[in-house]
Amino acid sequence: MNMANTNINTNINTNINTNILTGDLKIINFGLKSFTDAFKGRSNVSWAHVDFKPPLISDPALFKIIDEKRELIESANQEVVKRISSGRPFLVAAARAIDAIPGMQANTILHAGPPVEWSKMCGPMRGAVIGAMLYEKMARTPEEAEILASKGSVKFSPCHEHKAVGPMAGIISPSMPVFIIKNEEYGNYAYATMNEGLGKVLRYGAYDESVLERLNWMEKTLFPVMKRTIEAMSGKIDLKNIISQALHMGDEVHNRNRAATSLFYRQLAPIICKVSNAEDAFQVLNFINGNDHFFLNLSMAAAKATLDAASDVKYSSIVTIMARNGTEFGIKVSGIGSGSEKNWFTGEAPIPDALFFPGYSREDANPDIGDSAITETLGVGGFAMASAPSIVQFVGGKVADALKYTLSMYEITASENSAFQIPYLNFRGAPMGIDLIKVIEKNILPVINTGVAHRLPGIGQVGAGVLNAPTEPFKKAFIKFVEVISE
Fold it and tell me: Measuring CA to CA, how many Å separate 397 from each of 33, 126, 250, 415?
């Protein structure tokens, strides 16, 4: 019997050795893709590269707990996915920030991203704070504004802690007009400022006279017109429907909002003309028409209202906030009390891989900044770049890259959003529900497309690009998540 086994093994080994030496090579490569360079152009070699990366965390004890709670986690994630997919964000009103945003006081200035002190604020955020203080007449000069801010005369707080969102520096001060968005399905609200347009603007840290003049015009002219218009439309402007249509028209509603702004404009224009005098109507319509990013703040607030309803679901590993303050990148997770002021998980904000404007380079770039990654958290923006291939002309790369980004995000999400369909993928729903566990297990990080601010205040936008979220916030959140579900 042993002799027979020996003969069999010998024959098998001989056949294997013969096949390796004389047959066609069939190679599967793991690890560095550069190892495949030796196979390229060789007709007798069949090969495939597996894009394998080890988990971000490899502690077996942590994954043992995850496996033990898997059914509870999956059930909680299904509930979160249901809340996200059934959200119905509507634009219902406009008001001054101090009259609408919870917790806003006369000396409050809200900012993008996780909490940050004045001493740690980046250049663009400091510039935007200075501009807001001049606009509010909290200070008479930039120098006085800096002194007051450094002495604690201003109460700084993240927009997200007040159910609000702001692009780039994300500054919201008491007198600024804000849109009010209601999630009609769950009854919660979200808030966002009105978009200033491109060029030298407050959100990129500019605060010269032209910036202040625009902010005052927005308060005195744009705001009353928008308020009357929304009231005349009975506060029933369906933002989810606009986003859905815009994805079919080449937008991803983060860095490309041309279609969404146009759809929004078409709904409002007749009513604006009806409720306004001719001069005000002309100025407002001309302003919106000249600002393809006008819908951005609305898409962000729609995402915020939708995701807030999915907060605080016990055992859920779904990410409900991604935000950056230009210094740190922060996330919150539904199952770790994402509605709480605590439970931010942060890491150093990265600098985007960007297409820079003439005269600027990576050395000029500030680390990533803004609450606008709430769009990616919802599953649009960078997650839906396959719907907006022309965006690569703005952020760099090739059309194939836009498709690749979207396809990779299906790997780390819990579901697909049938309301946000991607035509190029045969109307497949956009990736929805960033799953913290999948991010850690697969070592695939959320992709974000973003504008790039100059690192110094007062200069403004210097480019646009794409980046992956940093690992640190997700690793910290995963360890805390395991601790929470173990209790």
Answer: 20, 31, 17, 27
Task: Answer for the pair 181, 264: CB distance below 8 angstroms, yes or no.
Answer: no
Phi, psi at 355, each rounded to 5°: -100, 110
Q: What is the pLDDT of residues 187-238, one digit of tens each?
A: 999 999 999 998 889 999 999 999 999 999 999 999 999 999 999 999 889 9
- Distance in angstroms (rounded) separating the CA atoms of residues 336 and 323: 16
Domains of the chain plus CATH, in order, are 21-52 (no CATH), 60-486 (3.90.1700.10)
What is the spatial distance between Cα 242 and Cα 6, in angstroms, rounded to a whole number?
A: 72
SS3 320: strand
DSSP 437: H
Q: Are 47 and 26 in contact (CB under 8 A)?
A: yes
pTM recorded for the entire structure: 0.90
Instruction: Decide: residue 360, CB within 10 A, 0-12 exposed, 13-18 middle, 19+ buried.
Output: middle
CA dihedral 414, 419, 424, 425 (to 10 degrees): 40
Which pLDDT does position 48 carry in this prediction?
73
If DSSP codes are grouped into helix, strand and coil, which group holds residue 439? helix
